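Long-time lurker, first post. I've been practising inverse folding by hand and with some scripts of my own, and I keep getting stuck on stretches where the structure tokens seem ambiguous. Below is the full token string for one chain I'm working on. Before anyone asks, I'm not after the true native sequence, just a reasonable design that respects the backbone. If someone could post their per-position residues I'd love to compare against what I wrote down in my notebook.
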């Protein structure tokens, strides 16, 4: 019974902090970056490591077996290089409990190497692959820990009776440790995917509400606006100079209302109307040429570096609108009529990457998290619909738009689109 109790304590120490992480961080995912907070994960790993080593598993009179390997492996896999923090703490805390041992240093070093190398590509693996890798790592490191304990016995240090490992209690405890590591990875990925799914559902619900509103109202509002604009233009040709100035203001506001209506209509039909091969290189050059006058008018230096032979498939008009929205927002973010905006495009693997970087005022993490939400805008007269339309258009083209920004450091928008030429080669 004592073994079962100790095993349950070890499993609870490893698993329960994940629900704490879910409650504190993942439920606030809409205000977070799209990557897990590695420092928070390392903090939890350090806490679980200390608790695991404080309350070890006891078999007979020996109490020197715990699940500290899980905390170190997880810290490296999800935290990268900062996983070295719990690794060092494991050595120091073991020295505090049992006296410093070079065998413990070697053990922790062996445990850390492979997870650190895997951490660079860990986020790109599927959940199934992560579970298989975690099972293999836990199995290998269980044998490594056993080997170090044998060395400890030979040198008269560490875990003593070696014969105890031959008993079923230690085999069972090791099996539970491997299963706990695998389940921890599964639970981490499950909670993280659930958090992302909740966020996407919230965005989808908001988009559906706006789309339904657009479909029912936009056409009805557009018709009277067109009539009013026609009569204003007619009156402008007959009125005196003073009234003509007012007429121009009225026409400008009517144009802005027309643009808002167009944005609503685009939200109502974000799908691609016409698919065709698009030479993005030529389209980007044409688009930047058109925007150069707008940039010059605001005192912004526009830099362009576009690779040749970039092709994708989609609606040429809508794709142009989406990219122009991103470029226009970047130019408008530069205040005091000075700064630069750089547009670069290149091919990366099977995708085309377009980067729009400006030297504007930048954004906070909270502002970045809310980009693309309806009616949220950083402009004084903005509605937030333009960027929302941009996200919808790019999503319809199987593309993505990611913003990176810091206050005072400018903003970087990264657009990725599928490469049509690569798709053709793969089909052949």
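-- Answer (accepted) --
I ran through it position by position. Result:
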């Amino acid at each position: 019974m004592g073994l079962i109790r100790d095993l349950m304590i070890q499993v609870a120490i490893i698993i329960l902090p994940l629900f704490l992480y879910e409650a504190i961080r993942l439920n606030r995912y809409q205000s977070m970056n799209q990557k897990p907070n590695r420092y928070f994960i390392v903090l939890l790993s350090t806490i679980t490591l200390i608790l695991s080593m404080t309350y070890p598993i006891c078999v007979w009179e020996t109490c020197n077996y715990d699940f500290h390997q899980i905390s170190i492996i997880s810290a490296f896999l999800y935290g990268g290089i900062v996983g070295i923090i719990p690794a060092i703490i494991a050595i120091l805390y073991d020295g505090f409990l049992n006296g410093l041992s070079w065998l413990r240093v070697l053990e922790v070093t062996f445990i850390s190497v492979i997870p650190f190398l895997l951490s660079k590509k860990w986020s790109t693996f599927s959940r199934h692959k992560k579970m298989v890798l975690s099972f293999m790592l836990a199995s290998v490191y269980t044998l490594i820990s056993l080997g170090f304990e044998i060395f400890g016995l030979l040198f008269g240090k560490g875990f003593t009776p070696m014969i105890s490992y031959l008993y079923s209690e230690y085999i069972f405890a090791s099996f539970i440790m491997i299963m706990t590591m695998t389940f921890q990875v599964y639970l981490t990925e499950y909670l993280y995917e659930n958090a992302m799914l909740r966020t996407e559902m919230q965005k989808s619900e908001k988009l559906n509400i706006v789309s339904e509103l657009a479909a029912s109202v936009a056409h009805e509002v557009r018709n009277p606006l067109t009539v009013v604009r026609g009569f204003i233009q007619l009156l402008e040709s007959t009125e005196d100079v003073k009234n003509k100035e007012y007429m121009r203001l009225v026409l400008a506001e009517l144009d802005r209302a027309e643009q808002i209506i167009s944005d609503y209509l685009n939200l109502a039909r974000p799908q691609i109307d016409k698919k065709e091969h698009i030479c993005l290189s030529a389209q980007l050059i044409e688009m930047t040429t058109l925007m150069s006058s707008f940039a010059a008018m605001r005192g912004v230096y526009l830099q362009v570096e576009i690779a040749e032979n970039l092709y994708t498939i989609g609606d040429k008009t809508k794709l142009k609108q989406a990219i122009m929205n991103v470029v226009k927002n970047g130019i408008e973010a530069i205040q005091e009529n000075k700064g630069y905006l750089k547009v670069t495009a290149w091919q990366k693997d099977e995708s085309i990457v377009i980067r729009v970087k400006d030297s504007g005022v930048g954004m906070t993490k909270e502002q970045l998290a809310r980009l693309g939400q309806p009616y949220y805008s950083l402009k004084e007269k903005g509605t937030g619909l333009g960027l929302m339309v941009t996200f919808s258009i790019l999503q319809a083209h199987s593309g993505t738009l990611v913003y990176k920004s810091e206050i005072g450091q400018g903003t970087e928008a990264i657009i990725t689109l599928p490469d049509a030429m690569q798709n053709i080669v793969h089909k052949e």
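A couple of notes from the structure itself: The chain has a mean pLDDT of 78. The first helix runs from residue 2 to 24. Happy to go over any region you disagree with.
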